What we know:
The chain has about 375 residues and is α/β, with parallel strands linked by helices.
Amino acid sequence: xxxxxxxxxxxKMGGAEKVLEDIYSLFEEADIFxxxxxxxxxxxxxxxxxxxxxxxxxxxxxxxxxxxxAFLYPYLIEDLDLSDYDLVISLNNSFSHGVITNQDxxxxxxxxxxxxxxxxxxxxxxxxxxxxxxxxxxxxLIALKLRIWDFAASKRGDYRICISQExxxxxxxxxxxxxxxxxxxxxxxxxxxxxxxxxxxIISRLSKYKNIDLAVKAFNENGKKLVIAGSxxxxxxLKKLADENIEFxxxxxxxxxxxxxxxxxxxxxxxxxxxxxxxPIEAMACGKPVFAYESGGIKETVExxxxxxxxxxxxxxxxxxxxxxxxxxxxxxxxxxxxTKHSKKFSKDRFRLEFKxxxxxxxxxxxxxxxxxxxLN
Length: 377
């Protein structure tokens, strides 16, 4: 049996890459195809000799701005010949679901999200990038063509899985399709409770939609100690906003990341319409309470007044009013054991089991044959 896994950008570690690693672990000698690969990125437990990049022959200076090649990716993904494969698993944030398979191949889409920058971020995306009139006009033409292609591409898979109820709703809205929810794996290894060092923590990519600027402004006002780990385009702007009680660490190693989680007083997540949200679960695995904007996938993973405090309005007044409630919750109602137990619902073992059960069922339904998995014992 030949298995192909389609991934989009193999350039850095993130939630999508952890899913790739766990799915790859289930299959003997699966081939991995990606749109873009940084050959210096070797952090995943996969066989890199089985990775093939569809842009491997492109000049390196072009691939440094691989996001600007969006108009090319539909052509590259459709040109990928998968006719020899029995099972194709596409891990989709944007283009991978567009692969073309023959009628005997079982094609399963695992959706991290529909293509956000042409759907729910369509109006916000050019504003955040401060595109001028001409670039904005070009962007709208490209987005129009991509939406038409993306809607057609969404119909090519035989079966669909998605990471959360939030993504299930987007798939229904934009593609008019249904999907099975299987939450992504969270690596709980090394995440342990330690006594607090008195700081509140944000670990995040520093992008506009993460709303880190609100946390900075709110902490400027309340004077509490805030530590922010992560890099991104907003780093410079955030540093200019911040008072001395706010510390920026930039990119941190895995070892430092674990230490930050284990010693924080509480974790903060403010992203708008988060797809799922791995970091709050990692914080809860350390027994830490979560303070989060009640939006998107966060509503599925953090229960208000049980795992932390959720608030509903993205403004300083609401933030700091609810933050007082959060501090009271930490003092009187927070249970590290409840949070640690809750985090185990999202473990890697749970993900592998649910993914195997679903893929086995649909493969047998489609082919009449049993699907063979790698023995992980």
